Amino acid sequence: MQRVGHWINGTLRPATQSSSFEVRNPLDDSVYAIAARGDLSDVADAAGSASEFAAEYARSTPSDREQWLITAAGLLQQRADAFSEVLIDEIGSSISKARMEIGIAVRNLTATAAMARQVGGKIYPTDGIGRWSLGFRKPIGVVAGITPFNVPLIKGVKHSSMALATGNPFVWLPSDQAPVTASMLTQLYCDAGVPPNALQLVLGHGVEIGDALVTDPRVAAVGFTGSHRVGRHVQRLCGENGKRVTLELGGINPLVVWEDANMEAAVKAALLGGFLYQGQICMASSRVIVHRSRHDEFVKRLCGAARGLPMGDLRDPTTVIGPIISEKQRQRIRELVADATQKGARIFCGGRWHENKLEPTVLCGVTDDMRLHAEEVFGPVVTVSAADDFSDALSQANATPFGLVASVFTENLDLAMRFADQIDAGMVHINAMTIQQEPQVPFGGNGESGFGREGLETGLDDMTQWKWVTLGPSNP
């Protein structure tokens, strides 16, 4: 059994008997680790340490910050097996999903390293004769990040690497279901040469210490990934305290399959998009909308493929379906499916539990009075509905307060572009599944799915502030 602690002021603070919590392996709910349970004083110490180091870290050179992140990427590749083991046991990843997550994290580190040289400026035109008008980007200060359990390495890297690349110290509150991954990444950064005080790690329960971190006056900007309910709470706190905030929240994401679609490709996209990591991905395509003429064929094909998804050993590369993260979430999924079936929805495949794993489940007949219509499942549950025409499909796809990502499968370019233009989503993929990730793109959603965008260019705007400097005589 592992014990993990905070990393504050360049010092490891281990978990103690009186101030710790258990981390459980979702496969069998056995205790996997004991983690330090942070309190308000830990948050204050972390924010204070980061703030005291902010000016010095802002003076670090682009070459240094670039090299630290490139070295970190190399170390992550070297330690891929160790990280995979933790992702399997701590959050119930399959080995294939763990390897995918590590690969994405490595690409994010290398891409973000280049941003260390983008904290520049420009010359502006001015009316003053013999005068220069200059604009400079400066680091904003202490950046806080709050990250989820489902992709703890990807989100830990995305939140931290942009802050570190742009000269800002980072304070990290990871999910209380993934503290071991966070501790390993923190150690990796230190081994890569990142100055100890540039990165602070506080473990604990967000409900107990999250507000203190968000509202600490020394924190200038906050990045949050998680549920829309908590995200809106974080946004309110940031607004009240004059802080920048970026939110990447959930989604009930539509995948539209039109009558001329490549059915094999569409089924594969729905299968992976709906059931990868047992649906515990914010970009999961939990709603599939099919042209009525292809609806029955699609459901038959999807269920046939879903029944064949392996649910075996998580270390077997062929395994796709693993355990749901916690008993609380398992019970919530049971309630959502039961509510739908009691009100008339029909389960076409799946619906059976094997200890902590749920078979890939496909339902039809979901109506707007059912919770499945309005709530993000975060489990291996996909609903399929029929649409009569483009207007009907678009109306169904937009019938949600969320707007993270959407996909459409069609050979009709005009229809595809009209869908991309009119769907209320921050990201749209044509003839590809909803789960897509690249470091350079503006990543995020509309409505209840987020606020702002993650990415390289967008991150540069979030993590820096402009300073205007003039040189020369003023205009009389």
UniProtKB/TrEMBL annotation:
Domain Aldehyde dehydrogenase span(s) in chain numbering: 17-469
Write the Enzyme Commission number(s) for this entry. 1.2.1.-
Top enzyme class of this protein?
A: oxidoreductase
Which key words tag this protein in UniProt? Answer: NAD, Oxidoreductase
GO molecular function per UniProt: oxidoreductase activity, acting on the aldehyde or oxo group of donors, NAD or NADP as acceptor
- Quick one: signal sequence residues? none
Q: Which Pfam families match?
A: Aldedh
Q: Which InterPro entries match?
A: Ald_DH/histidinol_DH, Ald_DH_C, Ald_DH_CS_CYS, Ald_DH_N, Aldehyde_DH_dom
Classification via Gene3D superfamilies: Aldehyde Dehydrogenase, Chain A, domain 1, Aldehyde Dehydrogenase, Chain A, domain 2
- Kindly indicate whether the keyword Cell membrane belongs to this entry: no
Q: Which domain of life does the UniProt lineage start with? A: Bacteria
What PANTHER family does the record point to? BENZALDEHYDE DEHYDROGENASE YFMT (PTHR42986:SF1)
Family, per entry: Belongs to the aldehyde dehydrogenase family.
Q: What is this protein called?
A: Putative aldehyde dehydrogenase AldY
The gene name on file is aldY
